[in-house]
Design a protein that fits this description.
heterodimer; A: alpha+beta; six-stranded antiparallel sheet; 21 strands; elongated; B: mainly alpha; two-stranded antiparallel sheet; 1% strand; globular; binds adenosine-5'-diphosphate; binds magnesium ion
Amino acid sequence: MASIELSRIQKRFGTAEVLKDVTLSIADREFVTLVGPSGCGKSTLLRILAGLEAADGGTVQIAGQDMTRVRPAHRNLAMVFQSYALYPHLTIAQNMATPLKLRDLSRWARLPVIGPLSARSAYRAIGEQVRETARTLQIEALLDRKPSQLSGGQRQRAALGRAMVRQPVAFLMDEPLSNLDAALRVHMRAELSELHRRLGATFVYVTHDQAEALTMSDKMAVMMGGRILQFGPPDQVFANPATLDVAEFVGSPKINILPGEVDHDGRVSALGRGIPARLLVDGRLAKVGLRPEQLHLDGGADGWLGRVVHRENLGHDLYFHVALDADDQRLVVRGAQDRNGAESLGDAVRVGFKPDRALFFAPDGTRLHSVVPAKLAESA
Amino acid sequence: MSEAALGASATTRFATREVLKHVVLILGALVVLLPFYVMISYSLKAPAELMQNTGGFFGSQADFLDDRCILLGGTEASCMVNPIAYNYDSAFREAPLFRYLLNGIIVTVSIFVIQVIVALPCAYALAKLKFWGRDAVFGLVLFCLLIPVHAISLPLYVVLAQLGLTNSYAALVIPWTISVFGIFLMRQFFMTVPDDLIDAARMDGMSEYSIVWNVMLPTAIPALMAFAIFSIVAHWNDYFWPRIVITGDRSLFTPPLGLREFRGDADGSNFGPMMASAVVIVTPLIVAFLLMQRRFIEGITLSGMK
Ligand SMILES: Nc1ncnc2c1ncn2[C@@H]1O[C@H](COP(=O)(O)OP(=O)(O)O)[C@@H](O)[C@H]1O
Ligand SMILES: [Mg+2]
């Protein structure tokens, strides 16, 4: 079990700068998610951590030791790949035994026929470890099958098993759930979190799905364009995003971004409606972010006037897409739980909002903080 | 009514096209099979039947008088022989066919094994490792594909002769051990192997050589089978190179060289035994590939790489 320190990691492929000075420190036993849109460098960062790719600059420390130039196998990390990467010609048991054989057996003892005869006890120990791991993952029945004879979920477990048998100091996972169907994916989220608690190992988990990051991790690092934009606990990242990009990436449906204006007193208004907040920038444009759950459809007389253009029924939640009459602007609004979604397509509605959680951003995307708490600003 | 007529005309048109296709294919097949037909037929018939071109495919299979046996002082009664027995018996008697077959096996198998030992690591490096000049090296491989063997046979021969290696198995094997075609073919196949699989092997602690033999080789069995077919057929049937480097020693003859023994007959008409030995020489290949074909198809269908 180990802490991980990545400091000032740089990587370029040809002229493309893929990682720009990435620093990340992961505590022992933490479940950290690297999340970001496709192509932002998550996999590259994970591969540098694993030792599969060499960084152009920066250092990798695992458990306090500099591992920047150490071969992958000697870092004692295990990786689970999106494609599972099981050896297609070996059974699941053989797949799981491979890392153990390579670690625990001498070159001689690995030879096909002589090996098992000469190092019988070592082979028995390996077999025992494989069965033990298979038991915890409930894949004992699959041990004699080839990967091609398994379903996606079963292969996923087998790949986890191969990672687990070695009892590595940390698990690295690169989008391990994205080849599974939706229901299984949700189920596996819970199972992976549970596995993390049971093993007490450090997990570094890469995903492009912000929902996975929010649900599973102790901390999430939001990456974009080769940088980590924000690193922190999921609820904090969600409630308090550092930049506009983070706010837009985290949360589903996406946060509504409205054009805002700040007058010379620092008072903010969006689409002609005042928002109880004071910003320290005056006379400038700003962007106002309101999450769908902060909006509602009974805005009263001063609500934004609009028309329902789409209803998105998720079962537990109902979202309305509202096209505002005055501006070329669409809002996504979460329907009130108690009103049963009475509004239907084409209905004219007035959109109101709960002002206390509005987020403000400068035109360049940096976060602006209200100098007056929303409650006070409202009463003032 | 019109619809039915339309349907009918469509089916007839369809049928004529099918018939046409099959006629063309059958004609093609006949052209290809004709030499085999002649070879097998000749190996079954008596010399007289061959001269007069009678007896159909099998000949009459009537015993005939073996002239040579008479010359050697046999009685007429003891020299009556069955044509098939005569042809195949002379084939094996006049040339050590088993020895040739054994040579063929030794040479083709050694060539193939060494080619694999050389080509797999090369192909792996070209397909999956990043190093300076990789594309240039691959370009060179492609370039070498274009060089006909005959063009370099003379310098090759000179080198082998100076090393004193002519008239040896080494002379038959060494020039073929680096197969650019093998490297190219395996490289193309390795390109399709997912990078994740190789990375997983590295995480598990395999060395690069270990990856070649324990990960790439098993997944590449279908491609290797295809290469085996090319390599073994080419070298089993090769007449040109053995003819150059094996000049005297009959015990080093490969099967195609063995066929030459019959060409030199005084009357130049001893087709029966010659065709019999041709049959003996091609049979192992045909049998081997009938067996391999199964494994080959199996290999392709099994390789559900995921
Ligand atoms: N081996 C490589 N050679 C060249 N470019 C690469 C290589 N690997 C990744 N890249 C590029 O680096 C960027 C980041 O890739 P990656 O880390 O895989 O992104 P992510 O996993 O976040 O989707 C992408 O633009 C990709 O095209
Ligand atoms: Mg990726």
